[in-house]
Amino acid sequence: MRITVAGAGIIGLSCAYRLAGAGHEVTVVAAAGPGESTSAVAGGVLYPPVRRPDKRIVRWTAETLAVLREQEAPGVRFRRGRVLLAPGEPEPQWLPAMIDPTRPDGHLEFTTALVDTPVYLDWLLAQVVSLGVRVEYRSLTSLSGLGPVVNAAGLGAGRLAGDGSMVPIGGQVVHLSDPGLPEFVVDETGPGVTYVIPHGDHVVCGGTVEPGRGDVEPNPGVTADIVRRCRELVPALAGARVLRSVVGLRPFRPVVRLERSGEVVHCYGHGGSGITLAWGCAADVVELFRAG
């Protein structure tokens, strides 16, 4: 079957890889390359940071972890880390999907994948092309006339589907030099979330949650606040150099849409969890086409 995948972020490329591996003739169409996608700005720690009443989350997360362990791809390292929880916060439903999870007083500990997303996306694009997938960079205004298609266009997916429930959630992060941090730390005890995710040569520090944000220009005041919060959380960052600030617009929907409607399989609305859910969702996309 000839299938078009709309989108070249982590969701679109994962779907293209799975579909090509299943024997389909695949073309990826996107307005820009994966390096310009929201995926490239992600912190890259693999666990679902957004609490959603969706039982599929655990299965998708476990599948993505299994794929990343098998791939041994550049930009992916498995590290242990901590998630600090607010008092009385229940154990999240996804915790069993993590590697060797425990819950000492006040926080979670587990091993998971830390993904340097620009590096991994470059590798994944090369893998997709090696499978014979064509990649075209052009804007889509409609899905009609494309034949069988996967709508994985991130924020653009809502417009292509006529889905008004999709909204951008702005997220600013700061990259600091990595002093050799051995673990990631996420603090969910405050009104926002503070996280420190080391990738060897840099640390992704965040962050912000800004519903409805439409621009990607970093705010210097927000940069200073993120650096302050992260240095308080991890004092070893006190002397780390500020390398850059970047902003991404997470494609948020109250529930991930993964379903078939005629010739279109919709796969969007992952918010900030695209890297966590990508390979599990891509497996479901293949099954939806197989089911006919």
TrEMBL record:
Organism in which the protein naturally occurs: Amycolatopsis iheyensis
UniProt-recorded name of the protein: D-amino-acid oxidase
InterPro entries according to UniProt: DAO (IPR023209), FAD-dep_OxRdtase (IPR006076)
Residues that bind D-dopa: 195, 250, 272
Binding-site residues for FAD, renumbered to this chain: 38-39, 271-276
Domain FAD dependent oxidoreductase: 3-288
UniProt GO BP: D-amino acid catabolic process
Taxon lineage: Bacteria, Bacillati, Actinomycetota, Actinomycetes, Pseudonocardiales
Catalytic activity: a D-alpha-amino acid + O2 + H2O = a 2-oxocarboxylate + H2O2 + NH4(+)
PROSITE patterns on file: PROKAR_LIPOPROTEIN (PS51257)
One GO term describing the cellular component: cytoplasm
Domain of life of the source: Bacteria
Keyword hit for Oxidoreductase: yes
Cofactor: FAD
